[in-house]
Amino acid sequence: MISRSALTRGSQLALRRPCAAKLAQRGYAAVASPKASYEPTDIAGVKVAARDDHGPTTRLAVVAKAGTRYEPLPGLTVGLEEFAFKNTQKRSALRIVREAELLGGQLTSYHTREALVLQANFLREDLPYFTELLAEVISQTRYTTHEFHEEVEDVIHAKQAKLGAVAVALDAAHSAAFHSGLGAPLYPTSNTPVASYLNENSVAAFAEVTYSKDNIAVVADGASQAGLSKWIEPFFKAVPATSPEPLSTPASKYFGGEQRIPKTGISALVLAFPGAALGASSPETAVLVGLLGGNSSIKWSPGFSILSKATAAAPGAHAQASNYAYSDAGLLTIEISGAPSAVRKVAEESVKALRSVADGSVSKEDLVKAIAKAKFDLLSQSETSGTGLVHAGASLIHGVKPLQVAETVKALESVTSDKLKAAAKGLLEGKASVAAVGDLFVLPFAEDLGLKKRSHSRTASKSPLRNPPIMTFAWKAAGITYNRYLAVASRVVRRSLKEEKRLAAEPRGETEVRFAKWSGGKPGEPKNLAEANAADIITRAGAA
Amino acid sequence: MPPPSLAPFIIKRPWLLNMLKPVAQLYANAAGYRQLGLRADDLISEENETVLQALKRLPPKQSYDRIFRIRRAVQLSLSHKLLPKNEWTKPEEDVPYLGPLVEQLENEIKEREALDTLEVVKKH
């Protein structure tokens, strides 16, 4: 017989639980099916990438080819980003914000080096409203003077004040690696003179160039295909089909070099190497990033990846490896930040670690771990909306094949330790880009770390046409001193003068200097300098 | 809050506007500010938040010219003189430059108030 106390509320709940658990399981099972890749389509001339998991929320973004790489003047991308969702011809910025709030939506704008993203996150049924809003923002923003001075400038200054040493170092590393284009800073620092380029008129002109159908892509995550094709066509009608003047997009070239910037506060050091581009099939790079790691997977522990072990010796420092993939280039970086001395120590340790990877001392277990990490990073990146969205949009506007998750995972699994070894060796033998920001008295130079700033002479001799000899220092190449070079040049000038001028100029070229070599505390035989020089040249010529 | 005005009523009716325009010009000339080289918008009282904000939104050149006109007028007023007749503000120069900005700001404030006191009616 069951006693009454056993039939309390708690036990009743416990009895019900299996049933409830079954319900919950069913719910999870539906969600756990893997997310599809973005499917590129074309709706009324607009490039659209969409995927739909039938969830309650939607993320809709306009990805424009207007990242810092494409800005014609410094700071324009940032200006355009901050001008998003400001006054348009139809409604004010305040109304846009309040209406979005009423619908429970979020409006954000951000940029990468290649893309400018205007994104709206909202409930699924509000698709028409937010499609109209995004189209209105890109085609009808007014770019008013007072908004620029009262709102945009303030936000830019506030964001500049927040830039840390790592961000500055990453920008410096990109600049050393790619010079212009991808080397343009992601966010101009407060020391960058942008005031002469950045104003509402230049931003409006840049918007006109960039916001055209051939320069943008609409990326939708969680919107039905029917809804998109119904609403994009009427609302994006006002967006011009082609840009009035196409953006100049020279191909990226990797240079490599070193940059050092003094800064108070914490120090940062970025070691960068040529990495994998967007859509390039180089799974080794992804696995190498997973192997170097840096970010701890568990709390209260530095973790067990190679960079984590390197930081263990210098508490307070943080090191992390990542691959920045762009449409036609990539940059594999090791970012180290912390107290200057700790940064120095970690930098030395991490180069040592990279060298040991190149020597092939990676255990089988580490390789398996690194592949698993790379796989997880890839899958979680494509699933969490933010980065996946930007990647899908960026590959669409650059005409790169969008990320095919299943294929890439298979490629990752095929990485062997030999391939990894070769990849690490390639990094160490190529030119590195090193950026040091902070206490330069302590932070090491690339040479101190044993990294090469110039590629092998072997690779240089491969393409003699690409690197023509620099003619500025012909005298250096001839193997004479600068004084000697000047003397020869002036003699030639004097001798080519007209007769009467030459007679006057000739004595100026004659020098009468005697010198004697002292040896053992006694002067040697005094010699005439001019005669000695002539004799020297003859012996040199004979030797050559 | 601007005082009630008949202007919108009159502007809507061209015949009335044409009839009253000479009277308005006569009034403006009689008001005496044109003889000091001022414009009508220079007379807008700047001792309130809206107008101060509108003054900040003036382009630098217009702002400089406005200060110049006001200082010249103050000087003339102190010395009990008028400008020579060829320097008086001409009717075609007497265009509103600050009024539209003040109006724009007032609209912004009105919109904000309207949105702040919004009542949401749920359709479903």
From TrEMBL, chain A:
<comment type="similarity">
    <text>Belongs to the eukaryotic ATPase epsilon family.</text>
</comment>
<feature type="domain" description="Peptidase M16 C-terminal">
    <location>
        <begin position="198"/>
        <end position="372"/>
    </location>
</feature>
<dbReference type="Pfam" id="PF04627">
    <property type="entry name" value="ATP-synt_Eps"/>
</dbReference>
<feature type="domain" description="Peptidase M16 N-terminal">
    <location>
        <begin position="48"/>
        <end position="187"/>
    </location>
</feature>
<dbReference type="Pfam" id="PF00675">
    <property type="entry name" value="Peptidase_M16"/>
</dbReference>
<keyword id="KW-0813">Transport</keyword>
<dbReference type="InterPro" id="IPR050361">
    <property type="entry name" value="MPP/UQCRC_Complex"/>
</dbReference>
<dbReference type="GO" id="GO:0046933">
    <property type="term" value="F:proton-transporting ATP synthase activity, rotational mechanism"/>
</dbReference>
<dbReference type="Pfam" id="PF05193">
    <property type="entry name" value="Peptidase_M16_C"/>
</dbReference>
<dbReference type="InterPro" id="IPR036742">
    <property type="entry name" value="ATP_synth_F1_esu_sf_mt"/>
</dbReference>
<dbReference type="GO" id="GO:0005743">
    <property type="term" value="C:mitochondrial inner membrane"/>
</dbReference>
<dbReference type="InterPro" id="IPR006721">
    <property type="entry name" value="ATP_synth_F1_esu_mt"/>
</dbReference>
<dbReference type="GO" id="GO:0045259">
    <property type="term" value="C:proton-transporting ATP synthase complex"/>
</dbReference>
<dbReference type="InterPro" id="IPR011765">
    <property type="entry name" value="Pept_M16_N"/>
</dbReference>
<dbReference type="GO" id="GO:0046872">
    <property type="term" value="F:metal ion binding"/>
</dbReference>
<keyword id="KW-0472">Membrane</keyword>
<keyword id="KW-0999">Mitochondrion inner membrane</keyword>
<dbReference type="InterPro" id="IPR007863">
    <property type="entry name" value="Peptidase_M16_C"/>
</dbReference>
<keyword id="KW-0249">Electron transport</keyword>
<keyword id="KW-0809">Transit peptide</keyword>
<keyword id="KW-0679">Respiratory chain</keyword>
<keyword id="KW-0496">Mitochondrion</keyword>
From TrEMBL, chain B:
<keyword id="KW-0679">Respiratory chain</keyword>
<dbReference type="Pfam" id="PF02271">
    <property type="entry name" value="UCR_14kD"/>
</dbReference>
<comment type="function">
    <text>Component of the ubiquinol-cytochrome c oxidoreductase, a multisubunit transmembrane complex that is part of the mitochondrial electron transport chain which drives oxidative phosphorylation.</text>
</comment>
<protein>
    <recommendedName>
        <fullName>Cytochrome b-c1 complex subunit 7</fullName>
    </recommendedName>
</protein>
<dbReference type="InterPro" id="IPR036544">
    <property type="entry name" value="QCR7_sf"/>
</dbReference>
<keyword id="KW-0472">Membrane</keyword>
<keyword id="KW-0999">Mitochondrion inner membrane</keyword>
<dbReference type="GO" id="GO:0005743">
    <property type="term" value="C:mitochondrial inner membrane"/>
</dbReference>
<comment type="similarity">
    <text>Belongs to the UQCRB/QCR7 family.</text>
</comment>
<keyword id="KW-0249">Electron transport</keyword>
<keyword id="KW-0813">Transport</keyword>
<dbReference type="GO" id="GO:0045275">
    <property type="term" value="C:respiratory chain complex III"/>
</dbReference>
<keyword id="KW-0496">Mitochondrion</keyword>
<dbReference type="InterPro" id="IPR003197">
    <property type="entry name" value="QCR7"/>
</dbReference>
<dbReference type="GO" id="GO:0006122">
    <property type="term" value="P:mitochondrial electron transport, ubiquinol to cytochrome c"/>
</dbReference>
